[in-house]
Amino acid sequence: MKILHIISSGGMYGAEAVILNMSRTLNESTHSSILGVFSNSANPNLQLHKIATAQGIESHLISCTGQIDRTVSTSIRDLAARSNADIVHAHGYKADIYSYFALRQSVVPRVSTCHTWYDNDLTVSLYGMADRFVLRSYAAVVAVSEEVRQRLLKAGVCREKIHIIRNGIDLRPFDKAPPSLRSISSLDQPPIVGLVGRLATEKGVDIFLRAAARVLVELPSTKFVVVGEGPDREQLELLIDELQISSSVSMLGRRDDMPSVYASLDIMVSASRQEGLPIAILEGMASGLPIIATAVGAVPTLVFDGRTGVLIAAENVEILASEIIKLLPNQTRRQSLGSAAKNLLKKSFQPSG
């Protein structure tokens, strides 16, 4: 079976990691996976396309000019025909909507994976509503969490079409990765606390930075890193200056060496206000990291407080800072939480072949 994945990518985030994981697994089996990646005129982010191609995964660019481009549906329909796709698997509202118009009269079944919707403003909320409307006609819809499933049901998607499938992860890239953020020559190095995610309101990066400022009062040698890009970068850089922590915080942007970035961290933080099933947490757990995470979305199905990590309430700078201060000096507890987290992934979250 040949699966054509369609996505409008804004960078290497959760959905992109899911697609790469699925594609590698499918291509190692009797099935095959190919990609159709939007090349958007306003933001032509081609990182997923380039990484897929470098990994030997067939990937095609789909040109998209402006917010509405009627040629996109034609391009998807042509690509599905040329590639002899048995299934078109869309990811995200833009891919869902264009694939709907491209294939609504085709016999090729459409499926979609819904990671989550962030209703941060009116425009995004309207896109989400349109997305859930077209998903009613899809043959199957994958929800990564119960919260996503409930939103699909509320939008009128048939119960029998919705399938909850948790994100899987390939542990191999994270096994014994070298720590790229640390000097090999020096053993006496400051601890590093990191957050990985899109620089947007829902990820709570501002909460992380405010907590960092409080931690530095108690543990001034600590270093903090933020990995990712997004619309709030300038605002967050201003916050770093306002908090006077620029000497202790690094905004690393996008990275192509994520296993090595995780290997450099002592603690990983997820300060999200809203989530589905975050790939970044799965990757941190695969790296054997202790995780401090907010109890949003499906995060509590990954992070069991006191067992595989530390679970806290969202929007609470004081609690986040306190937990970092307690965990950083306790290497034994950090190792215990990280080991338990990695063992959980081995048992429950690796994709089957």
In short:
With 353 residues, the protein is an alpha/beta fold. Helix content is 39%, strand content 18%.
Topology of this structure?
Elements: E1 2-7, H1 14-27, E2 32-40, H2 47-54, E3 59-64, H3 71-82, E4 87-91, H4 93-103, E5 110-114, H5 122-134, E6 140-143, H6 146-154, E7 162-164, E8 192-196, H7 205-218, E9 223-227, H8 233-243, E10 249-253, H9 258-264, E11 267-270, H10 279-286, E12 291-294, E13 310-312, H11 317-327, H12 331-348
Parallel strand pairs: 1-2, 1-4, 2-3, 4-5, 5-6, 6-7, 8-9, 8-11, 9-10, 11-12, 12-13
Helix pairs in contact: 3-4, 4-5, 7-8, 7-11
Structural write-up:
The protein has twelve helices and 13 strands. With 353 residues, the protein is an alpha/beta fold. The protein folds into two domains: 2-164, 3-Layer(aba) Sandwich (Rossmann fold); 172-348, Rossmann fold (3-Layer(aba) Sandwich), CATH 3.40.50. A seven-stranded parallel β-sheet has the order 3-2-1-4-5-6-7, with helices on both faces. Strands 10-9-8-11-12-13 form a six-stranded parallel β-sheet, sandwiched between helices. Helix 1 links the parallel strand 1 and strand 2 (32-40). Helix 4 runs parallel beside helix 5 (122-134) and helix 7 crosses helix 11 (317-327). It starts with a strand and ends in a 5-residue tail after the last helix. The model has no long low-confidence stretch (mean pLDDT 92).
